[in-house]
Design a protein that fits this description.
Blueprint lengths: L2 H47 L11 H11 L8 E8 L5 E8 L2 H10 L3 E3 L19 H5 L3 E5 L5 E8 L4 E8 L1
Antiparallel strand pairs: 1-2, 2-6, 3-4, 4-5, 5-6
């Protein structure tokens, strides 16, 4: 076999090998992207029926989504470290949020929910929970100013506290 034929064969083999690897990598990327899209779609469908609250990790897409659903204010750069928890089993439901924000966000939340200063501690010394989280600092919350909104029949209640020194907010809502 002549040298030029051998070079041509090696060149064709190199091109075929390159195209094979390129195609395999491209196919793998397509498969990975498709798997991720299917997983995301499944998660979104499940979330419509069983909303996801991530009490163990801050700032997840689900916590951000729950934040905007419950607090009904736009997420702005000052809002971070968002934790949330739901207890919707039984005849009543309760939801807790803890997050950092500045006073402009506090004002937006208080205005949006028509919350007012409340001097009466909630029944049961506030909120009795079966679950303890580092991000829900009950001792600190007890010393903060309480803001409240109650429905006319007093069956749906919202509480809000803000620690200005730490720029830490706590939001709790429940129905009876």
């Amino acid at each position: 076999m002549c040298n030029s034929c051998l070079i041509k064969i090696l060149l064709v083999a190199a091109i075929v090998t390159f195209l094979c690897f390129y195609s395999c990598n491209k196919i793998n990327k397509i498969v990975d992207n498709t798997e991720q899209k299917v997983t995301d779609k499944k998660d979104e469908m499940v979330d419509k029926f069983l909303p996801t609250f991530d009490s163990g990790t801050p700032d997840t897409k689900w916590n951000k989504k729950r934040f905007t659903e419950f607090l009904k204010v736009e997420l702005t750069p000052d809002i971070y470290n968002i934790y949330c928890f739901d207890d919707a089993i039984g005849i009543d439901a309760s939801y807790r949020f803890s997050f950092n924000c500045d006073t402009s966000t506090v004002k937006r939340i208080l205005d949006k929910h028509q919350m007012v200063v409340d001097t009466i501690k909630p029944i049961g010394d506030g909120i009795i929970f079966n679950y303890v989280f580092d991000w829900w600092q009950k001792d600190k919350i007890d010393s903060l100013q309480l803001y409240t909104w109650k429905s006319a029949d007093k069956r749906y209640i919202k509480h809000f506290w803000y620690n200005e020194d730490e720029q830490k907010a706590y939001y709790f809502t429940y129905d009876l």
